[in-house]
Every structure is written in C-alpha cells, then in structure tokens.
Amino acid sequence: MALSSGDNVPSCTLSVMGDSGPTPLTTDDLFNGKRVLLFALPGAFTPGCSMAHLPGYVATADKIKAAGVDTIACLSVNDAFVMGAWGEAQNASEIVMVADGNCQFTDAMGLTLDGTGFGMGKRSQRYAMIVDNGVISHINVEDGPGVDASSAETMMALL
After folding, report:
1. Residue ranges per domain, the chain?
2. DSSP helix/strand/coil, 92
3. What is the pLDDT, as a whole number, of residue 91?
4. Which residues form the Thioredoxin domain (predicted)?
C-alpha cells in the first residue's frame, strides 16, 4: 500500500553524484529539518521524463524555492552516474538528482512500477510530494500516462 499524507518518509540510503563519484545520501539528510518537494519518475533520459516532467521543475525552481521549499529533488530508479549525467544534460543545477538504484525507497513508498513488459525492470511510478521535516504533507500520484498531478505547476499551487 502506498504511503500518503501524514506518513513519515521511509528511512534508507540513496545516492547522488558527487565530485568524486557516487555519494550516499540518507533520507534523514534529505528530509529532516527541511521542506522538500520531491518528484519521482520512471526513468532518466526517457522521453516523457526528459521532455515533460523534469523541464517544468528546472524552469520553475526559483519560484518553488521562493515559496518556501528548501530542496527540490528528482528521484528515479537509476544509478547515480545516470542521474548525474541527466541532471547535467537538462541544466538541472538547482535540483538534487537522487538515485534509488536498488529501488529501496520506491518499494518502501509503495510506488513501484513494473516495467518488465518494456524491458525496464522495476521503476518508480510518477508522483510528486511535499515533505515537511520528514512527514509527507501532500502527495500526488499520476493515475496513468502523462504529467499532470505531479507537474511543477500543480505542486506549486500546493505551496
């Protein structure tokens, strides 16, 4: 069952691309004492994610932060190398590109997508959430294809 508003985010270790390679990032480090807007998507460099989802957050990052968000994070079930390269390719310098390489966070959120029929294995469903000091205050999960409920514009309206 998927986590919902009022639930604590799962505790686990993710990773980001650092100056000298993949660097561990705990969910405590990411969420505790902060207001975070995290959006998750099925895969880096995929068409919908690269053309519709991430660009909206890149374009509105300053407005989102001005509305009281400390960190904007993009999460996918990819490795830190891929997430780092994708962030660079998309000029996403204001967004923390988070790798959930083992699908640990996504599984714990209850938001795993079975992409085996497409040769993609386990992935994350497309969603976005606002987390206040480790507690989910809003979460919007897409019901089907497309980017609507989890778009930057939709989430900004909740800030």
Report:
1. 13-156
2. coil
3. 95
4. 3-159
Contact present, 97 and 16 (Cβ < 8 Å): yes
Closest by CA to 146, choosing from 125, 132, 130, is 125
Residue 154, classified by CB atoms within 10 Å of its CB into exposed (0-12), middle (13-18) or buried (19+), is middle
Q: Which sequence positions are flagged as catalytic? A: 49
Return d(Cα 9, Cα 27) in angstroms, integer: 8
- Rounded to whole angstroms, how far apart are CA atoms 140 and 39? 9
Write down the pLDDT at residue 116.
81
Among the listed residues 126, 123, 130, the one whose alpha carbon sits nearest the alpha carbon of residue 142 = 126
Please tell me the distance from the alpha carbon of residue 13 to that of residue 22, in angstroms, as a whole number: 12
Model-level pTM? 0.95
